[in-house]
Write a structure and sequence with these properties.
Helices cover 74% and strands 2% of the residues. By secondary structure, it is mostly helical.
């Protein structure tokens, strides 16, 4: 695949790089990797399944709660998050898009996110029983559900108001959601417990902010839809 990547046309390379507003580095790299699959029998759903399996493996690795398994789980999560870009990039450059495939991708994202944080909670509970006043499993469920809700609402906002409405803060090709790429630093530093506590506080708060943003986008969409009818009546 390396030789094929080197032989990509200039137009294909430009497609991966994007416009002057640089696309996230992981999306660009994913595009380069899947470009050789553009005219093959590979489908976005197959890549979604690969991402799902890796993500489930990451969640399972956190269940024992040991240092070694937690580091493996963090590594698998990075691979899973990166693979999550590959199915979308293949669908974009090959035109192999389907509503069912899009739904499958959303369900996979939610499942991996929620199960990952629940598994982190289970692992902490098995190794640090009584260290927290609230059950680590509850904290994991709250964190994972809030993050999954954030992803879903951001998708809905993009459908209502366009991609510009969900533009994330970025720096050097990194976006806000890329913070999970730092999870290996958390596990290497053996800071999984404070990470889960912070996630259980910050994720719901950010989810509330996204809910407000979603309601604003929904209100603007309804106002724009009703305005032509009102003007016509006048």
């Amino acid at each position: 695949m390396g030789l094929q990547a080197k032989n990509m046309s200039e137009s294909e390379q430009a497609t991966c790089v994007g416009t002057a507003a640089q696309r996230p580095w992981d999306a660009r790299l994913a595009c380069w990797l899947v470009t050789p699959l553009k005219n093959s029998g590979a489908t976005p759903n197959q890549l979604t399944t690969l991402r799902l399996l890796i993500g489930l493996g990451a969640a399972a690795a956190f269940i024992p709660g040991t240092y070694g398994w937690s580091n493996l789980g963090a590594l698998l999560l990075i691979l899973s998050n990166f693979a999550d870009h590959m199915d979308g990039e293949l669908a974009r450059i090959s035109g192999k898009f389907s509503p069912i495939g899009h739904l499958y991708d959303l369900v996979s994202d939610a499942a991996v996110t929620i199960l990952l944080f629940i598994a982190i909670g289970v692992g902490i509970g098995s190794r640090h029983d009584g260290a927290l006043r609230v059950s680590p499993v509850v904290l994991g469920t709250v964190s994972g559900t809030a993050i999954a809700l954030i992803f879903f609402l951001r998708m809905r906002i993009e459908e209502l108001a366009g991609k510009a409405a969900t533009q994330q803060a970025s720096l050097a090709g990194f976006e806000t959601e890329d913070v999970l790429y730092l999870l290996p630093l958390v596990t290497l530093g053996n800071r999984v417990v404070p990470f889960l506590v912070v996630a259980s506080i910050c994720a719901p708060l950010f989810a509330l902010w996204v809910v407000v943003d979603y309601r604003r986008a929904l209100g603007r969409r309804q106002w724009t839809t009703c305005r032509p009818s009102t003007e016509a009546a006048q």
